[in-house]
Specification:
Blueprint (H helix, E strand, L loop, with lengths): L3 E7 L4 E4 L5 E10 L10 E9 H10 L5 E15 L2 E15 L14 E2 L5 E2 L19
Parallel strand pairs: 4-6
Antiparallel strand pairs: 1-3, 1-5, 2-3, 3-4, 5-6, 7-8
Length: about 140
């Protein structure tokens, strides 16, 4: 099974092109934070993505550099020769794209609460009545 799910921020504006046969194709890259910080510093991977047809048009219309995006797709590898040297590529072919932040929060840090237009904050359990999961030895089963 070849399935990729990523959540990250666009590193540049998506670029929309059209093939000679009239098919829309969009290329972009996203910065995806790694799960664990190394020595207190968060590191990110920069993933190249390609979307086709309506998905490509949707991404180019509604997303821009800095916006958070969630993508679902598959990993695609390729190779080409340039100056007698073989180069290998790895891209995510995007089948689905989703908004992952509000339009006004693209300039906010990823650690900031998301604000909706009516200024309510979505705290995602921070300072709410959220009970953390107990340690393994405290579980009742």
């Amino acid at each position: 099974m070849n399935k990729v799910i990523l959540l990250g921020r666009l590193t540049r504006d998506p670029e929309l092109r059209t093939t000679p046969s009239g098919v829309s194709v969009c290329s972009f890259s996203i910065a995806v934070n790694r799960r664990f910080a190394k020595e207190g510093q968060q590191t990110a991977d920069f993933i190249n993505c390609v979307a086709w047809r309506q998905t490509a048009e949707f991404i180019c219309k509604y997303f821009a550099k800095g916006r958070m995006i969630a993508v679902v797709g598959s990993l695609t590898t390729g190779r080409y020769e340039k100056d007698g040297q073989t180069h290998y590529t790895t891209d995510v072919t995007v089948d689905e794209a989703y908004f992952a932040d509000s339009k006004n929060s693209s300039s906010n840090s990823s650690d900031s609460p998301v604000r909706s237009d009516d200024s309510n904050t979505a705290s995602f359990g921070i300072n709410d009545d959220f009970m953390p999961t107990p340690a393994d030895d405290d579980l009742p089963f």
